[in-house]
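Note to self: user wants both folds in one dump. Writing first protein now.
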Amino acid sequence: MINFLYNLLALISIIFVIPYHLYRSVTRGRPAAFAQRFGLISASELEKIAGSDVIWVHAVSVGETIAAVPLIKALRRRYPSKKIVISNVTETGREVARKIAGIDLCLYFPFDYPFAVKRVLRKVRPSLVLIMETELWPNFIRAAGRLAIPVLLVNGRISDRSFHRYLRLRWFFRPVLEGLSTLCMQSAEDAERITAIGAPSGKVLIARNLKYDIAVPAQTDREAMRDRYRVPADIPIFTAGSTHSGEDEAVIEAFRAVLAAGRKTVMVLAPRHPERAAQVAELLGRAGLPCTRRTALDSRREPFAPGEVLLLDTVGELLDVYALSDLVFVGGSLVPNGGHNVLEPAALRVPVLFGPHMENFREIAALVIQFGAGVQVADCAELTAMLGSLLDDSAKRLAMGENGARLLAENGGSTERHMAVIERFLDDEERGSRS
């Protein structure tokens, strides 16, 4: 009965799902990809994985995709003959996934309709499915079970907000969680929460957070990279990354304040959703700040001068920009959005600032503060004060950067823990196929 009601609601939702994805397609300038979302994969795409064992990694959006990179690299090293498929729900997640080395096929995750998920699983026929964090699609997990395809939850977490919703629907999620082969959770608290929701305790493991094993850009010629982004070597770069509507104004106000105090710096402003670039450019214009979009940077000849802004309206370059920065603010944190991953700049030895709303990254935020790799600010006034203080103190910035590298070194190892679990499934399968 539960499955029937779920599928009935899913069927009814088509009248909302299709217009929603058409709207996103038009507003974001990307194809809706309805064929893949309804389980249709072209012959040319399937040819990329034909005749091979397949590992399928699902990462809903950008953050999950980046977190999956160290695991994907480990899978490629351990199983070079297998093909790796990655699926995403969002267009921005797919853009990031397409740039990851070692991926054989990128797909949009199918809508959770029985006919769609069955079609995809029978075409791809993976040996193993790895679902990043907490993407629980009942029909997909059920169909994989019927095809004897193990499904693992990796880097699993249950946020404060999600926990109470899941708990109220425990009667619905228990059979879904029972269909998973193993659940690798980030922390003891996450393990307790997923068990309370209905996961069998014998299937739940603590494998820590893959984000501590974050893959950072290889060391490059910093001078050449500065030239690439038209920023002179003697001008500090302040980057505000993954900002949301409502906090761009605070970042702009803080930047204007440090300029008014006589400090010379360039700002890179990177909205979390690049399609907001026009809106953010308008804010910068009203604030009297000269702005160049990244997509127009190649036509710019003169270097940036202090007080100018590079508006990052592309996907997949934020880590490169962080690596060049002298100081970073990570958005989604001055507004009640739960925050974003502050480990990315910390891993690059760049001090990080973030706001009070870090509910989705509470453990990470606490460690960044504990190690002295970053500072949490309460509001725009504190952001302004800390930005000015750190721009004036290069020795302090250097020390905080080294603390960030130490944090990552002492808290890594999640990839190896996950691989120990994954290898049990894939190695057992390989032994079975040889016998």
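First done. Writing the second protein, which came from a different request thread.
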Amino acid sequence: MDKFVIRGGNKLEGEVTISGAKNATLALMPATLLAPGNYSLYNTPELNDVYTMMKLLTHLGVAAEFRDNLLKLNTDNIISQDAPYEHVKKMRASVYVLGPLLARFGLAKVSLPGGCSWGPRPINLHLEGLKKMGADIELSGGYIIAKSPRLHGSKISFDISSVGATGNILMAAVLAKGESSIINAAIEPEIINLVCFLEKMGARIEGIGTPNLHIEGVDELKSADIDTIPDRIEAGTILIAAAITRGKVKLNNIKAELLLSILNKLENSGCNLIYNNEYIEIDGVNNNINPIDVTTSAFPGFPTDMQAQWTAYMALASGVSTVTDTIYLDRFKHVPELQRLGASITINENSAIIKGVKKLMGAKVMSTDLRASASLVLAGLAAQGTTEVLRVYHLDRGYQRIEEKLKFLGADIERVEGKEF
């Protein structure tokens, strides 16, 4: 398992280009199962999760070629509707193949998903929605077995807004007979990217960007190409890296509209920002780091995927702040590791109360999940001395060579390869 060795204290300066969005890509790839043909997915990030999804699609019969952030897929010869545990266990997003396989072939056998070390993330919304569309669903031997000669349109109302369920039901509905409505649909940019892709394939969808989607099912779709949107979480992480090191950085290939909630909080914390829908500039050189509370919520609110990074940032604030996660109530495994670096944080139910300290000190810390890993890297960049972040394979799931981007901006960070540390 690789680790990062970070010698903290360097201010980040310069320009960096943001990669394509992981969460968008992991929805776009399964969508290609809906129709035979050749697909080109541009701006696809080179991530472990993308390669995991490629392996799953290849098992199903998809031909894949991936080079220079261009992913080419051919779905003419699907030979299986069985997504086995050996592939699905690595990544929860693998469940995205359920809707497309069922809609196109009338059958899907998908292992119950894995891929995260924290918190229950049930898929009942996916299954209940498919049942309303006429699917016969059985849970047997750790698998979801779904059957339907052809799904039919239905009105599906989610009690809570779910990105995963919205994507899965949407991909199923575009080939269903009749009309479907998704009420309280997720409006995250990654869902909008998926809707645009489906429309290019010939789907008929109204209400893009709103919580109420109306889908008129069609008999068949065609292949298409799509540009993956920039990764707002990678952008937010690098912005905080600049802020926590009192640096000055310009991010290219990023739309400010994707992360306005984060930009607003950074400005309130004391950073100066200039942004539009092509780039974001952050200047934290004279930043005193004001303590700013955040509460996560569905888009356009503050994303849960930035909660851990913000917690690391507030560890050096000039006062007390609170970070509350309303999406995943137990997503705080990064806190004990930040405490090893000298952070003063206590947990009260689904909130972290952070008393800012004047300095963090380098130490050896352990990654537990993707975003927790990012928070440890951010803290290490600002800490005095050397920080070792172990098990950075978590980071490789969601950030395209982030250590190279940080090094390019002036960070003293290196990847050390090894089996165990």
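Dump finished. Worth passing along: Residues 3-19+230-416 form a domain with the UDP-n-acetylglucosamine1-carboxyvinyl-transferase; Chain fold (CATH 3.65.10.10).
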